[in-house]
Specification:
By secondary structure, the chain is of the alpha+beta class. The protein has eleven helices and 20 strands. The strands form three sheets. The protein has a nine-stranded mixed beta sheet with strand order 1-18-14-17-16-15-6-8-7, sandwiched between helices. Strands 2, 3, 10, 11, 12, 13, 19 and 20 form an eight-stranded mixed beta sheet that branches. The chain is globular, with a radius of gyration of 21 Å.
Length: 398
């Protein structure tokens, strides 16, 4: 599957990044990671720092899958609002899922600081456009306050005066960050390689052979990788190997504007915006450009998805114009990607029943990178035989 098409912003602004060779010899390691995007990079980095030997393989160039299409809003928000998630899985578990998001957002910010990767922590606004949605948003605000999250309420007048945002209401949060996912992916892989990891791209895993006490990965290049565990970090491509109903594939669209600026006297903190809707609009600043996305539709095939880029970019730009009437907007780059959604908005982390040597780090949803950060800790604990109380929230078969 081609996970994206169009003019993805991050590879364009970064240029050629980390260059690694294809697999050219047999390897043996503790953990073989399939996928060398941001999720695979987080796994490789965490596991090597824990003293495990790791080999990561990707059929593309590193970071050129979903990572290249990500808008990288690092937020604790889950696609299912907290007050609704409490109804689905119980208050304690729902609040813990949101707390994990806060911890992961902070953890990602620390990683960026360690690695010298550009990262900002401007905070966020979770908003509704229409008055009829305000009561629902107030219920979400109450649930977040009850969970101990640091949030404030912003009414229509405050949204307009402080940020120049034309919306009916918003939840203002300090716990949110934004980064360059392509740069972060490459920096993590460089550190993992420096700690002894083997990373090879342009190498396709064609078969996973289960052995006594481990696995063998066969590749299109010929050499094999023997490992005690295999960790799938292929994102939405992994859906083909999972039971039906685990994830629904979605075509999503994004754009980056030409250089612009907020209305005079507005939006000094450059907060990110995320709409409480389905599908939802989301946006962030990157320097003097806005990066925005949304207009999701169910994925049918790549050809249909790609054909809609122009129309969907125009729709997103129109929505931005209504939301931000004081900002001059013109599309510079537009792209599309295939992502996934789950029934409860949570990712899947761990081993499916009957596949004990196969671990999955699937951060589905709008905050997939924060789930991937959580997965790097959970799967490292799993391989090392350490208990992790949070793993059950993301288990298969839940």
């Amino acid at each position: 599957m081609d996970l994206h098409s169009g003019a993805c912003f991050w590879p364009l602004v970064n240029g050629l990044g980390l260059v690694v060779p294809p697999l050219d010899r047999d390897l043996a390691c503790d953990v073989a990671v399939i996928g060398a995007g941001i999720t695979g990079a987080l796994l490789a980095d965490a596991m090597t720092r824990a003293g495990l030997s790791v080999a990561a393989l990707d059929r593309r160039d590193v970071g050129e899958g979903s990572t290249a299409a990500s808008t990288a809003l690092l937020m604790y928000d889950i696609d299912t609002p907290l007050h609704r998630l409490r109804e689905r899985i119980g208050r304690a578990d729902a609040e813990r899922a949101y707390a994990i998001g806060v911890e992961s957002t902070r953890g990602l910010s620390r990683l960026c600081a360690e690695l010298g990767v550009e990262c900002a922590e401007p905070g966020s606004i979770y908003f509704v456009r229409d008055d009829e949605r305000v009561d629902d948003l107030r219920a979400e605000f109450a649930a977040r306050r009850e969970a101990g999250l640091e949030v404030e309420w912003a009414d229509r007048a405050r949204l307009e005066s402080e940020w120049g945002v034309r919306a009916a209401g918003g939840i203002v949060s300090a716990s949110a960050a934004e980064a360059d996912p392509f740069h972060l992916c490459h920096a993590l892989l460089r550190r993992a390689i420096g700690a002894g990891a083997a990373v090879h791209d342009r190498t396709t895993v064609t078969e996973i052979e289960v052995l006594d006490g481990g696995v063998a990965l066969h590749t299109d290049r010929g050499p094999r990788v023997r490992a005690r565990w295999v960790a799938h970090a292929t994102g939405f491509e992994a859906a083909a190997s999972l039971p039906r109903g685990v994830v629904d594939l979605v075509s999503t669209y994004a754009l980056a504007t030409e250089p612009t600026a907020p209305a005079p006297g507005r939006w000094a903190d450059r907060r990110m915006l995320w709409e409480m809707a389905d599908p939802y609009l989301y946006l962030r600043w990157r320097g003097d450009r806005l990066i925005a996305g949304g207009a999701d539709v169910p994925f049918r095939n790549e050809r249909l998805r790609d054909r809609l880029i122009g129309a969907k970019a125009a729709s997103i730009l129109k929505d931005l114009g209504a939301l931000l009437p004081g900002v001059a907007l013109e599309t510079a780059f537009a792209w599309t990607g295939t992502f996934g959604a789950t029934r409860d908005g949570l990712g899947y982390i761990g081993a499916p029943q009957g596949r004990e040597r196969e671990l999955f780090a699937l951060g589905f949803g709008g905050n997939g990178i924060t789930f991937s950060h959580a997965a790097s800790a959970m799967l490292t604990d799993h391989v090392l035989g350490r208990a992790n109380a949070d793993a059950r929230l993301f288990r298969f078969g839940r």
